[in-house]
Specification:
This protein has six helices and four strands, in the order H-H-E-H-H-E-E-E-H-H. The longest helix has 99 residues. It folds into two domains: 101 residues; 100 residues, ATP synthase, E subunit, C-terminal (hypothetical protein PF0899 fold, 2-Layer Sandwich). Helix 1 packs across helix 5 and helix 2 crosses helix 4. It is an alpha+beta fold and 217 residues long. A four-stranded mixed sheet has the order 2-1-3-4.
Length: 217
Amino acid sequence: MTAASSEQEKVLREEILADAQRHAERVLSHARREAQELRDRTRQDIEQGKSEQLEAARREAASRREIILASAAIEAPRRRNARVEAVLQGIHDEARRRLLAREGFDYREALVRLAADAIARMEGASFVLQLSEADREALGAGLAEEVRRRVGRDALQVTLAAEGAKIAGGVIVRDAEGRQVWDNSLAVRLERFWPTLRRQIGVRTGLAGASGAEKEL
């Protein structure tokens, strides 16, 4: 091998090595770029995932808030109405207790007015009053005549029944033929007038507005 040939081989070898080095550097640079891009995409995906999760959490929180507000809008009036009903029921029960205990009013006068009111609403000229057995014994004397005078109708006949009624208080009025009956016993009269009374109580105590008393209560 001549000196010239040896020099050419050396140059060729160096060129091959240099080319291999450049190729290796290109491969390594490309790999680094791909790795960096992969890291950037991964970071973006993570950030996007966090953002999406945060947005989903916000939507869920907003949805739950709307549900809670909607439930409160329904529940609050329901609870208020329940409290109003409890108060009114308490008033009803206390009124019934006082009526049956004859507290705070002239009971004999009440019997006369109840009987006269019933007769004024009925047709005919002959009526029979029926009291509880206890009221008949304690208050029956002269009661029929008081009722007749209170009604003030000409040719009116009012008598007291021979037997007591199974009522706690008040009076039941019948015509002589038994075709008309007006129950003005205390318990029945309270129940008959209670719808009107409860509305009036609701308005006067502020439990309901005047225009919406019946709806509210």
